[in-house]
Queue: 4 jobs
Job 1
Amino acid sequence: MIEFRQVNKRFRRNHVLKDVSFDIGAGDRIALVGSNGAGKTTLIRCLLGEYRYDGGILINGRESRTQRTEILKRLGFVPQMPPPLKMGVAQLVHYASGLCGTDAEQMKVIIQTLGLDFGAIAGQSFNKLSGGQKQKVLIGIALGRECDLFVMDEPTANLDPQARQVFFKLLAERANDAAMILSSHRLTEVAALVNRVIELDAGSLVLDDRVEGTARLDAVSRCRVELSRPDEAFARTIAEWGFLNTPGGPVWQGRVYGADRLRFLGVLSRYSALIKSVHIDEIEEKLGASRSARTA
């Protein structure tokens, strides 16, 4: 259980957080939203014990500021802006695993699962990696440990579609065991990942609402897209999603995870003049059945 109790934070005359109070339980996947300057980053930094504040923030009974070391061992954090670390990737992973008492191999496995060849980047400086590579390393470090809480700021911003699908599956595996806070200034970026929305405005909590009917993070849709004619731009775009061209015509087949379905349909909408038909099978893996939806 995470508790925010009348949290206030000031920077001189600027009152950034104003009596913010709410609780988070295991299984809560929270979208922390608000415009730039609403107080999201300040609240997260207070939670991480980086700032002094008035009020209380407790994680399983531990106070975030005074018991920060113990809390950070059980908290996975992925910042929006990766830190400018000059240490090698392998050194960073082993350093992080040592801090939280986790086997570094668990982190390496997740990094590999996200699509990075760990052996190829192990000796490289973290600061020299691309944005997507840095994101995958940081997600691997966060999800490769035993956690009570995951805090992620725009976690999928630099991920390619296939890595996003892996990320959703990894989150689904941890969804019932830990709480999650996903911060974004646009709800649409994280809406499919969450079951609760908390909005800040000018430092005050203005919304705390449950989200009904969210897609299962591990749901998988089989998709078949047929074009009226071949198109190179579409071929490049759909290939990024892991789709394969079916021999004999401009037909593409692949899979999309439930949390990315709206994003995928948005991509298809850019090519609506070319699309002849779209066929989607929503796979119910646990029940061994599927529902079919067809549009033309």
Job 2
Amino acid sequence: MVTENTEPLEDGAAPQVTSAESTDSAPRSFTQEDVNRLTGQARRDARSQFSDYDALKERAARADELEQAQLSEAEKMSQRATTAEAQVAEANARTADALIASEVKVRAVQLGVVDPDAAYLLMDRSSVKYDPDSGVSGVDDALTQLLDD
């Protein structure tokens, strides 16, 4: 019987296996060339599997740099916002103090106080408040208390 794996023999000897696959009963021996070819192929396969590793590593490094830059920008913006909020609060406090001083001096003159600046420095300012919506309140009570004392 002739198959694709065997060749007919003229003298009736046992058929020889000619394909790359061997039968289960006979162990196959490899030559050094076969071993070199197989290991070379395995190395090529491994290299091709990880051939884009350096490019991926570089892209990951660039992504990390961009993330750090964005984080730094976010930190800068946060710091700027905090500084701006502090400046606004300080400006509002100065504006409130100026409006209170102005209101005290106007009311002191209306009440006949000789030195309105002294009245502002001497009066109890704990009850005097400034509200952006309603303005300055408590000035009349504080000046009346100062004049009574």
Job 3
Amino acid sequence: MFLDRILQDKKIEVAERSRRVALADLERLVAEAPPPRDFLGAIKGTGLAVIGEVKRGSPSRGPIRPDLDAASLAVQYQVGGCAAISVLTDAPHFLARPHDLERVRAATTVPVLRKDFLLDEYQIWESRAMGADAVLLIVAALQAGELAHLVRLAGELGMCPLVEVHSAEEVDIALDRGVRLVGVNNRDLRTFQVNLETTQRLIQQIPGNVAVVSESGIAGPREAALVRHWGADAILVGEALVSSADPAGLVRALSETGTGSSRGRRS
């Protein structure tokens, strides 16, 4: 299973990183860091918000643009009107480079999400020290108690937790933790198969006062319009933007397509 292998690798990586940089050092960096940007506020507006993702490759696709400059691409996303930017920080499986997130945040003014497999409170402190304004927490990767702890810690550090789900059971777990932002991943992390209708199915369980991001499978305006119609507040787009000859233009097209009304969700 893809997810199991990635999580095993991540536990080893976190142990090594914590030996190199002590938690006390991260806490000092966090105390000196500039205040977080409002990630949730940035995506909760009228129309469909676009979160552009910076990544060089993935386990399912292999290398996509291994030579990309993270800061330069992020600037193009912002020019196109991205509400926020997601940065992959996993090197072994997604080809991230050191300081990608720091460089993206320094080059832009929109909120930045750290997208990784976060399993330990050390990584939450590390994320804020990097400059992250939000963190991805994957229900499938965490026990319920671990998820609750990391959601709480992220909030205490001023970051918005984007809690990712892929099944009805995971939606219930996320909502039980009182989260305000849910990411519906259309990609099954155990098989890496994509089904856009995962958003259509799961969004019916999510109250209207919880913002929803549809992740994976958004290739262009057609998919953006569909998930907006189903009730999504935002889309997270990676491969289509990274592969585009005109990332700013594609962000603009996705945003404009998503300005139509959604059919809404239950309150």
Job 4
Amino acid sequence: MDYSDSYNKFFNKLKRDNKQKGNVFSTAVGGDYEEMGYIQMQLLRQAGLSENDHVVDVGCGTGRLAYQLAEAKHAQYTGFDVVGEFLKFAKMKCQHSGYRFKRISGTSIPLPDQSANYICFFSVFTHLLHEDSFKYLLSAKDVLKVGGKIIFSFLTYDEDEHWVLFDQMVDNKESTHHNQFVTNHQLEIWAEKLDFQVELLETGSTPFIPLGKPIKLQNGATFDRLGSLGQGVCIYSKT
């Protein structure tokens, strides 16, 4: 399935509805542009990221992870998204010679086999049909180097805090942006079918990402030594 149309419509509506135009590119990815990008970067570092690793960011949005990596002088990054205006903003924020931003359609990552060390899907599988998420993982397996890692966030029925969101979807009579849920066991089955090792499976309710500085989010939440994305996190490794 091609999700380009729905995401572009979502962003166009957001622009019309958002009175503070300067913040629309942060709002489009859930707010906390610098803060969440920093936590994502710290998660990659926890997973073993080194400065010369090639990071591929599928669903890069407006470049919050890319911005943090560029500030940290990380060498190589490729970001993909379906919204052209997101990519233009990301390029403006991350003017780094080793960084590329490209449009993507479908569920295949257009990069050579074994060319990436880390492939990220932050808040991507949370909005896709399961079969499309699995197709992305199949493509990522080809693009990933041996020893490389796939990192993605997810919403799970196994987490009470995520179930609250599902309840809201059930009660909402209007059409909203779709949220997709998984079970923890489902992610273990996917790893087995793909011949990946599950390196990490955190449901997200308890902060677990080591931080180098305190973080305060727009909703008032604060993180001191450990942070969270507000979603579950799974890391697969390719052996």
